[in-house]
Design brief:
Layout: H1 3-18, E1 34-35, E2 43-44, H2 65-78, H3 91-109, H4 126-129, H5 137-146, H6 152-177, H7 182-191, H8 196-202, H9 207-229, H10 234-244, H11 249-268, H12 272-288, H13 290-299, H14 320-323, H15 374-387, E3 392-393, E4 396-397, H16 403-418, H17 427-448, H18 453-473, H19 478-498, H20 514-521, E5 527-531, H21 574-579, H22 591-596, H23 607-610, E6 613-619, E7 634-636, E8 646-651, E9 662-665, E10 669-677, E11 681-688, E12 693-699, E13 704-708, E14 711-717, E15 722-726, E16 733-740, H24 745-780, H25 784-787, H26 791-798
Parallel strand pairs: 5-6
Antiparallel strand pairs: 1-2, 3-4, 6-8, 7-8, 9-12, 10-11, 11-16, 12-15, 13-14, 13-16, 14-15
Helix pairs in contact: 1-18, 1-19, 2-6, 2-7, 2-19, 3-5, 6-7, 6-9, 7-16, 7-19, 9-10, 9-11, 10-12, 11-12, 11-15, 12-24, 12-26, 13-24, 15-16, 17-18, 18-19
Length: 815
């Protein structure tokens, strides 16, 4: 074992054993024969979970687990930074999420929502991108709060750590809602954000998925409390809105399935009124978030999402045997991934203790409470089917993304069973089975990638030690809790040693200072078209002080205040993308250079003129333009070339109409004035000698309207996807107003109002019903207690056979 791992493992063992060293001095004491277990049945006799000397130990209050949980998750979030300071400023998080969060914070501080940012071109339709989270108040607050932080990697670290903590606290409270003891609930709270896929994929690259996973337990918690405690259904609407307003389509999926699962449980328990309320709450969430997703659906026709279909190519598609790596921290399943036929991180790992402890759990305890666990089974079953589903299902793709959903019911079931303590009967056989399960996980990991034998061996030894300590100390003791919590942190430290960065996705290594980027690219004036590719950057040039002095990718030009066609987009704009052969993150092919100086089909002038381009940056390793002739009307600008990696071309003369975006008109049309109005609109005056057309240097996203002298005019898509307005016949002069509105705005507003009314009805109707029953009861002489139940809580009170959910105690052990 390597020295640093020897230290880490040794420290973890010493902490696990010694953190509660005082335990061994506590002498056994006798307990009451009956102990209430919260959600499980009352048991009698001594606790077989505890080791021999600890049997009969008195119940001790354990107020520390949630505090330790929060502290450990915060420490765990910082662990990767010791080896990789940009761990959270990686791949899509660096190229897309960071610039969008910066723009969102900036816009909110200006008092506006950035629905369509014209200067960001293909990456600027934030309303249609949906997954910006700009309709979510928590995202808004974080965007504004972190905007003053110049170090963008630090800002993203703060944001992502917040959501990991939010996930941990939500998971903890959800487990407590199921009657689980504080220590085990904290174990779930730590396990969820530190699971392999969550930590090494979502947290480092895909912040939208991380945010969604953070809200799932809160939705589940609100639904279950409405079911079991009669809590206001408004909390479910609020939690559902917070999840779905992130704009991630998977949020609708997850929220819908959580509500469905709890609804089925309510039906099974005979609480039909609650089931109806849950269904109506789900409907309210859908209505409230129509405004988030409708623009995406109405914009797919112009982008890459137009071809969304169902098929299977096995990309990011795990199978059942891959899921056996649930407790193998260094297993890299053979799942087709980005550029590799296997995962480059432990993507199907959940927690080291789940699989090895299965033989020791009291499975018989489920017999008496299966109805109250219906939601766990339903949501788990649906999630498993989706994880094992086809690689592409309409707009939903890559089923491994859904493994986070599956881990919630898995962890819930584990902590519910663990809450009953270990069953130590036939201990020798169970030790053998636990060892076999650990060995099976190790063997499957080795079978996938035999070259990883060292790290697999280290992980197996560490898990074996931790499982041994856990079985020795027990699940319900303070020292057992220490093993679970600190052991998970030690395992993560070992994983980070082997996986300090996600090598399977884009490693841009962008500069982290926004001010630095702003200063470097202030030299570019007007619309900047970049002809460059990340694939043409060498490893030596892909560093902040080399390749990124003259060019940059993703949407980072926007952080510098430079208008550019280069931008990251999840939806794309097909006609512009084809014209410049542009990839999702803003890279182009070498042919983009020639395309700029050619006339697109249907145009009378070159593409560069239609775009109103003023600066063109060309990557020399992609296409060397230094020895060629200058394009007509352009000149080379060596003073703007900080390195020899690029050639910069600028216009020789300024463009007309500098305050507007008209780029070309038909010969019989003369523009007199042209100016921008607000973030998206434009107003111009003109004269014409007959029917004509005007082309604008802006993409024709759905939602544009034009009027000429107050009468509607035709807006159509022109060359390279640009806006073209046709002047009506008979108009020889006047004013043209071009405006943009979010597609489906009237429908979205109507749906939002209906959602508010439905939410208000879900609160007011039960309240009014209770009051009416109370008054009627008072007149008939009934007691207040008999009349104060609303019809839905009455269902709960009258439901036969439904086990009551008692609050869980903080005991370390059972009697």
């Amino acid at each position: 074992m390597e020295p640093e791992l020897q230290f880490g493992v040794g420290l973890g063992i010493r902490l696990a054993i010694g953190a509660y060293a005082g335990d061994k001095h506590i002498r056994p004491k006798k307990f009451s024969k009956a102990v209430h277990m919260g959600t499980g049945p009352t048991t009698t006799g001594t606790e077989p979970d505890l080791p021999g000397p600890a049997r009969g130990r008195r119940r001790l209050a354990l107020p520390l687990p949630p505090v330790l949980m929060v502290a450990i998750v915060a420490v765990a979030a910082a662990v990767p930074l010791f080896k990789n300071t940009i761990f959270y400023y990686w791949d899509d998080s660096a190229a897309a999420a960071t610039p969008l969060w910066r723009r969102l914070g900036e816009a909110l501080m200006q008092g506006r929502l950035p629905l369509l940012e014209i200067d960001m071109w293909r990456g600027g339709n934030l309303a249609a991108e949906a997954a910006t989270g700009m309709w979510n108040p928590i995202v808004m607050a974080l965007a504004v709060a972190t905007r003053p932080i110049d170090n963008m990697a630090l800002a993203m670290t703060v944001i992502k750590t917040f959501f990991m903590l939010l996930m941990a606290v939500g998971s903890y409270l959800l487990a407590r809602e199921y009657g689980v003891r504080s220590g085990l609930a904290a174990t779930m709270g730590i396990a969820m954000p530190l699971a392999g896929y969550t930590f090494f994929m979502d947290a480092t690259s895909w912040i939208n998925a991380l945010m969604l996973t953070a809200f799932i337990p809160w939705v589940w918690l609100a639904a279950r409390r409405a079911l079991n405690h009669g809590n206001s259904i408004l909390w479910l609407v609020l939690a559902g809105y917070l999840a779905c307003s992130l704009g991630n389509p998977y949020a609708l999926l997850a929220t819908g399935f959580v509500v469905l699962a709890v609804l089925v449980e309510a039906w099974v328990l005979g609480k039909r009124g609650v089931a109806v309320r849950l269904a109506l709450a789900g409907g309210a969430v859908v209505l409230l978030t129509v405004m988030v997703y409708l623009p995406l659906l109405m914009t797919t026709s112009v982008g890459v999402r137009a071809a969304a279909t169902t098929f299977n190519d096995e990309f990011f598609s795990p199978n059942l045997s891959n899921l056996l790596g649930i407790s193998t921290p260094t297993g890299q399943p053979w799942v087709r991934s980005f550029g590799q036929p296997f995962l480059v991180f432990p993507g199907t790992y959940l927690a080291w203790f789940v699989l090895p402890t299965l033989p020791w759990l009291r499975w018989g305890s489920l017999r008496g409470r299966w109805r109250s666990l219906t939601a766990v089974g339903v949501f788990g079953g649906i999630s498993l089917l989706l994880v094992l589903g086809p690689s592409n299902l309409w707009m939903f793709r890559w089923p491994l993304r859904l493994i986070d959903f599956l881990w919630f019911p898995v962890m819930l079931l584990w902590v519910v069973l663990a809450n009953e303590g270990l069953d130590r009967s036939r201990a020798r056989l169970k030790y053998l089975v636990s060892g076999a399960l650990i060995a099976l996980g190790a063997y499957l990991a080795w079978a996938d990638l035999p070259q990883n034998v060292i790290r697999i061996g280290v992980g197996t030894v560490l898990v074996s030690i931790l499982v041994g300590l856990l079985l020795w100390r027990g699940l319900l003791t303070r020292s057992g809790t220490a093993v679970l919590l600190l052991g998970t942190l030690v395992v993560l430290a070992m994983q980070v040693h082997y996986y300090p960065k996600h090598i399977g996705v884009a490693d841009y290594r962008f500069p982290t200072s926004q001010q630095l980027i702003t200063d470097r690219f202030a030299k570019y004036q007007g619309l900047t078209v970049q002809v460059a590719s990340t694939g043409a950057l060498t490893e030596q040039d892909k560093v902040p002080d080399r390749g990124y002095q003259d060019m940059i990718f993703g949407t980072l030009y926007s952080t510098a205040g430079v208008e550019s066609t280069t931008g990251y987009t999840g939806i794309g704009f097909t006609k512009l993308d084809n014209a410049l052969c542009m990839a999702y993150e803003g890279s182009t092919c070498r042919d983009a250079w020639q395309s700029l100086w050619q006339r697109p089909p249907g145009a009378d002038v070159p593409l560069a003129d239609l775009l109103r381009a003023q600066t063109v940056v060309v990557q020399n390793s992609l296409i060397d333009t230094r020895g060629g002739p200058s394009p007509a009307g352009w000149r080379r600008a060596p003073d703007k070339e900080t390195t020899e990696l690029v050639t910069v071309w600028v216009r020789s003369a300024p463009l007309p109409w500098p305050d507007g975006r008209v780029s070309h008109t038909s010969d019989n049309v003369r523009v007199i004035t042209d100016r921008r109005v607000g973030p998206t609109d434009e107003r111009l005056t003109f004269s014409a000698t007959g029917p004509g057309e005007l082309t604008f240097a802006r993409l024709n996203w759905p939602g544009y309207l034009a009027t000429v002298n107050g009468a509607p005019a035709t807006v159509r898509t022109g060359p390279a996807g640009l806006v073209v307005v046709d002047l009506p016949a008979g108009v020889i002069e006047g004013e043209l107003v071009l405006s943009w509105h979010v597609p489906g705005k009237p429908v979205s507003i109507a749906a939002f109002v209906l959602g508010l009314l439905l939410s208000a009805g879900l609160v007011l109707v039960p309240s009014l019903t209770r009051r009416r029953r109370h008054l009627a009861g008072a007149r008939s002489g009934q007691s207040a207690a008999e009349t104060d139940l609303d019809p839905y809580r009455r269902d709960e009170a009258e439901s036969a056979g439904a086990p009551a959910l008692a609050g869980a105690g903080d005991a370390d052990g059972r009697a």
